[in-house]
């Protein structure tokens, strides 16, 4: 079942949060921030955790058009349009404002599909949150202008900004990070001309339930994400900061984004390493259901892969992860975040505790969505693991303690052999 809606049936608040769609999953989780701003007009206002690396972070947004591909969700559209955000190490951020986590149209769409059980609509000012990435800041100068690049894909229904805590962290450590919005999948995507395209998946889900085509919908959703990923790879040279040379490409994502990362690596040799944050690799209703494996799970992969699961999800308990593990020839690691639920791998881990405090919601709202893991420790562990993984396989550096095995320094992590 979806951790947001356990015990409830699907409703119009967002069928993407219903149990049947949780396997691909919209989920939000972010670490507890240091300072909590006062609510505005009765609405909660939120902060995100600051990145910890030596670089300030810059960001630009790009509108990409794939003229070779009609839009798969709206067939009257002759081209597939995407929005991406590029995070990068910045040289000087003076005079460059901090970017919003969501633009107004994106915030309104996200609120409409609010999947957090117990959080009322209209009570959170999603557009007020500022990231630690500065708009249009000049990129940092480096002796050798070679950058490892990491792509990020969010869960179903989530905007690309719901991985900000991890993407800004990587950029502060010297990575260029390209965050992908999957148009008509994400809750809302705002384009430079002011147009806002909202998710078509609630209607698609209802149709699939009526017609008995749920598996086909899952396959299409994942295939579109992989096609989007490969198109972004085609345009990568123009997305990295001017004068920089791409030195290696990795990919990570949460839920369906984690699926896209592993499947993308299976399908495209340009992806050198993939990290999957609690994404099932099969077209099934529940993570622990067997069958309907993706080709990535069925064939395995020959490059490094990191699996990070919520409590109870590992390669012994999730059939699609077991298939990937058994069939892969590349290096692999499997870590469980103790006490976590599916949403603990997105920005809500930091945001939801603030919402609960400001709106006076019951504590069970928190444990239903992100589990019992301490939010600030979840953030620290996820940052350490994702950074260590890409440092090891894109930079050739020692991956660090979290990937070496069980560690007293990381009691939240269970190293799965």
UniProtKB/TrEMBL annotation:
Under InterPro entries, the record lists:
AB_hydrolase_fold, TAT_signal
Alphabetical list of Pfam families matching this protein: PAF-AH_p_II
Protein origin, superkingdom: Bacteria
Q: Which UniProt keywords apply?
A: Hydrolase, Lipid degradation, Lipid metabolism
**According to the UniProt entry, where is the signal peptide?**
none
MF annotations from Gene Ontology: hydrolase activity
Which PROSITE patterns would you find in this protein's record?
Answer: TAT
Asked whether the keyword Transmembrane helix is assigned, the reply is no
What name does UniProt use for this protein? Answer: Hydrolase
């Amino acid at each position: 079942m979806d951790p947001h809606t356990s015990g409830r049936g699907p409703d119009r608040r967002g069928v993407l949060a219903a149990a049947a769609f949780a396997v691909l999953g919209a989920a939000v989780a972010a670490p507890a921030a240091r300072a909590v701003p006062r609510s505005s007009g009765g609405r909660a206002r939120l902060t995100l955790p600051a990145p910890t690396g030596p670089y300030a972070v810059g960001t630009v947004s790009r509108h990409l058009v794939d003229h070779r591909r009609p839009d798969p969700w709206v067939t009257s559209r002759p081209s597939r349009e995407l929005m991406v955000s590029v995070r990068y190490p910045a040289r000087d951020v003076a005079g460059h404002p901090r970017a919003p986590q969501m633009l107004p149209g994106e915030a309104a769409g996200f609120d409409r599909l609010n999947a957090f059980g117990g959080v009322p609509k209209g009570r959170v000012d999603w557009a007020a949150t500022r990231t630690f990435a500065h708009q249009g800041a000049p990129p940092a100068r480096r002796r050798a202008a070679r950058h490892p690049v990491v792509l990020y894909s969010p869960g179903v229904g989530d905007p690309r900004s719901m991985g900000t805590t991890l993407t800004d962290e990587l950029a502060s450590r010297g990575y260029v990070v390209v965050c992908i919005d999957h148009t008509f999948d994400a809750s809302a995507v705002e384009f430079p001309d002011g147009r806002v395209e909202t998710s078509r998946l609630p209607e698609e889900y209802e149709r699939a339930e009526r017609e008995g085509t749920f598996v086909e919908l899952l396959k299409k959703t994942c295939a579109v994400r992989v096609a989007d990923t490969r198109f972004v790879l085609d345009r990568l040279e123009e997305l990295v900061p001017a004068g920089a040379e791409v030195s290696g490409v990795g990919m990570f994502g949460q839920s369906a984004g984690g699926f896209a990362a592993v499947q993308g690596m299976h399908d495209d040799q340009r992806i050198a390493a993939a990290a999957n944050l609690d994404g099932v690799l099969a077209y099934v209703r529940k993570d622990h259901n067997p069958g309907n494996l993706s080709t990535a799970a069925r064939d395995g992969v020959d490059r490094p892969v990191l699996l990070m699961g919520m409590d109870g999800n590992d390669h012994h308990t999730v059939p699609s992860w077991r298939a990937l593990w058994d069939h892969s020839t590349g290096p692999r690691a499997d870590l469980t975040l103790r006490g976590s639920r599916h949403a603990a791998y997105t920005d809500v881990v930091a945001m939801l505790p603030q919402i609960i405090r400001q709106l006076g919601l019951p504590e069970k709202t928190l444990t239903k969505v992100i589990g019992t893991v301490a939010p600030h420790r979840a953030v620290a562990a996820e940052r350490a693991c994702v950074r260590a993984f890409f440092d090891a396989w894109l930079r050739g550096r020692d991956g660090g303690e979290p990937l070496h095995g069980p560690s007293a320094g990381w009691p939240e992590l269970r190293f799965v052999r």
